[in-house]
Specification:
single chain; 145 residues; mainly alpha; 7 helices
Length: 145
């Protein structure tokens, strides 16, 4: 089972995809957990999410998927686990918040919130990593040898 979890190919595209997705999710997680990059930090994120009816344990799970999952993706460590987390998180965000707003992001400031186009891209990227693995420059690759 562990061998299947860390298996991957030498396709460099997987490494590129994993790094981009990992950096994006790590940055979002760092906003929520540490207040970096203009974020609210842990307390602010908890308060904001609670206003939307998201429970504290679920907020912690969201932060963990983004921050620690982002790190896991960056390093290519057990890549399929954080990739699965990203898929679940993005589906949850679409269903709970973004579907009712529509497809498009709020580029022009003329709608109430953001659509779900970003979420679909993240789901597609994570799905590739779920199916194919971390790529050649990863902890998973080193462990699989």
């Amino acid at each position: 089972m562990f061998k299947k979890l860390i298996s991957t190919s030498d396709d460099i595209v997987l490494t590129m995809l994993r790094l981009v997705l990992g950096v994006v999710f790590f940055a979002h997680g760092a906003q929520k957990l540490l207040g970096w990059f203009g974020g609210f930090g842990y307390q602010g994120t908890m308060a904001a999410m609670n206003q939307f009816g998201v429970s504290a344990p679920l907020v912690w799970l969201i932060i963990a998927i983004e921050f620690f999952g982002g790190l896991g993706l960056i390093f290519g460590f057990l890549t399929r686990i954080p990739a699965f987390g990203v898929v679940v998180l993005m589906i949850g965000a679409i269903v709970m918040f973004h579907f009712r707003i529509g497809f498009f992001m709020n580029w022009y400031g003329n709608q109430k919130g953001e659509g779900f186009e970003f979420h679909l891209l993240a789901i597609a990227m994570a799905a590739v990593l779920l199916l194919r693995g971390a790529g050649p420059y990863s902890v998973d690759r080193a462990l699989s040898k």
